[in-house]
Structure formats: structure tokens, C-alpha cells
Amino acid sequence: MASVWIPPLMRELTGGLERAAVPGEKVRELVDALDARYPGIKARLVEDDALRRGIVLTIDGVANRQGLRAKVGPVSEVHFVPAIGGGGM
Length: 89
What we know:
Blueprint: E1 2-5, E2 19-22, H1 27-37, H2 41-45, E3 46-47, E4 50-51, E5 55-59, E6 62-64, E7 77-82
Parallel strand pairs: 1-7
Antiparallel strand pairs: 1-2, 3-4, 5-6, 5-7
């Protein structure tokens, strides 16, 4: 099962867990499995059948732009990272 890192702002949905092991061959399946276990997490990650704007997906340490269609391996490490904005003057 893939290991999914849960962003700090979503950990209230997981009872404080930082990581969750969930089955799936694509990111969409991981998100569905997470939401079945931790209701509400999909609403924080997905909008209009795509990852929300401002969420950066990494799989095994590599940024991925395929979103919910991205493939994951059985021992992949997946991160949903809120993008950091700002810095303008």
C-alpha cells in the first residue's frame, strides 16, 4: 500500500495521524480510500474532479502534474502539499 503524508491542516480529520497507508494504483483511488477512512479529506483535496488549486502532488519525491490520474506504486510515498504563496512587495 502507498504511504500518504497528511498535511498538518488536515490532520484533525485523521485523528492527528501524519501518515496513512492506503491501497490504490492511481492518486484518485488513494484519495477515495482516504475519504472512506477519514470522511471529509476528499473535499479538502479535490474540487471539480481535480486536485484543488494550491495543492502540489509529489510521488516518491518528484512533483507530479497528472493529479488524480497519476499512477502510484505499491510502496510509493505520496504527499499533498499546500502550495506556499506570497512574498510579493
